[in-house]
């Protein structure tokens, strides 16, 4: 099993550009999450999904959009990149064990907006 | 969400046990106690979790106070590869919630020779 795969690993965007961060998992997990981590800080939840077709906002959703058309994929879209979105982005998944199981995280996408 | 309090940093010598404390005085009956760690330049990694009883796995042990208001992650023999930020997180298991993880700033563990 590959676990949670994120692409790309690194990206530099210019202000106002758009991009999609890809996330795929092969563990048949219902729950998927997007977090961002700024330097020296803990992770903050951007969006999450409890299954295909269902998404909801987390703590810091502004400037981002998500979709969940399949169980495996959960892409994160940045429409108009801003310097404040410079961060490391982590995707995660978990089975629907309601807290009884751990999350599996991807290795992250390091994004710089200039 | 119930909050956790951890020391900002701790140091340990290699091959010695490490006890990482976590206070969660407002924990509710539906909160599981989860521990994750994040090695440099990597995503967080699940370590262990528990509800009321102490737990052991291949990575660590989790000791939970009887009143559940605190817990301790125990690394039995620290190695240089255990140097990481350790997060203690409460995860609500109430049916119908998405059971999200809320990260604090964690404890940065330094391991020296």
Structure in a nutshell:
The complex is a heterodimer of chains A (114) and B (113). Chain A is an all-beta fold. Chain A has strands at 4-7, 10-13, 19-25, 31-37, 43-51, 54-57, 64-66, 76-78, 87-94, 104-105, 109-113.
List the helices and strands and how they pair.
The complex is a heterodimer of chains A (114) and B (113).
Chain A: E1 4-7, E2 10-13, E3 19-25, E4 31-37, E5 43-51, E6 54-57, E7 64-66, E8 76-78, E9 87-94, E10 104-105, E11 109-113
Parallel strand pairs in A: 2-11
Antiparallel strand pairs in A: 1-3, 3-8, 4-5, 4-9, 5-6, 7-8, 9-10, 9-11
Chain B: E1 9-13, E2 18-23, E3 31-38, E4 45-50, E5 55-56, E6 61-64, E7 70-75, E8 84-92, E9 107-112
Parallel strand pairs in B: 1-9
Antiparallel strand pairs in B: 2-7, 3-4, 3-8, 5-6, 6-7, 8-9
Description:
The complex is a heterodimer of chains A (114) and B (113). Chain A has 114 residues and is mainly β. Chain A has strands at residues 4-7, 10-13, 19-25, 31-37, 43-51, 54-57, 64-66, 76-78, 87-94, 104-105, 109-113. Chain A is built from no helices and eleven strands. In chain A, the strands form two sheets. In chain A, strands 2, 4, 5, 6, 9, 10 and 11 form a seven-stranded mixed sheet that branches. In chain A, strands 1-3-8-7 form a four-stranded antiparallel sheet, with no helix packed on it. The mean pLDDT of chain A is 93. In chain B, a hairpin with a 6-residue loop joins β3 and β4. Chain B is globular. Classes of the chains: A mainly beta (114), B mainly beta (113). Chain A binds chain B through residues 4, 31, 33, 35, 40-45, 48, 50, 56, 58-59, 90, 92, 94, 97-100, 102-108, and chain B through 30-32, 34, 36, 42-46, 49, 87, 91-95, 97-106.
């Amino acid at each position: 099993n590959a676990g949670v795969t994120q692409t790309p690993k690194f990206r530099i965007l210019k202000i106002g550009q758009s991009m999609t961060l890809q996330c795929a998992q092969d563990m048949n997990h219902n729950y998927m999450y997007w977090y961002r981590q700024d330097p020296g800080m803990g992770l903050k939840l951007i969006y999450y999904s409890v299954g295909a077709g269902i998404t909801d906002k987390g703590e810091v959703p502004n400037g981002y959009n998500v979709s969940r058309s399949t169980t495996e994929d959960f892409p994160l879209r940045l429409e108009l990149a801003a310097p404040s979105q410079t961060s490391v982005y982590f995707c995660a998944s978990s089975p629907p064990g309601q807290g009884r199981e751990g999350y599996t995280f991807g290795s992250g996408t390091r994004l710089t907006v200039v | 969400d119930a909050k956790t309090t951890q020391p900002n940093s701790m140091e340990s010598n290699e091959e010695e046990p490490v006890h990482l404390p976590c206070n969660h005085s407002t924990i509710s009956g539906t909160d599981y106690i989860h521990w994750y760690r994040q090695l440099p330049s990597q995503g967080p990694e699940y370590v262990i979790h528990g509800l009321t009883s102490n737990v052991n796995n291949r990575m660590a042990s989790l000791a939970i106070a009887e009143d559940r208001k605190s817990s301790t992650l125990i690394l039995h023999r620290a190695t240089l590869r255990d140097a990481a930020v350790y997060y203690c997180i409460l995860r609500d298991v109430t049916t119908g919630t998405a059971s999200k993880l809320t990260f604090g700033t964690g404890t940065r563990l330094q391991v020296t020779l």
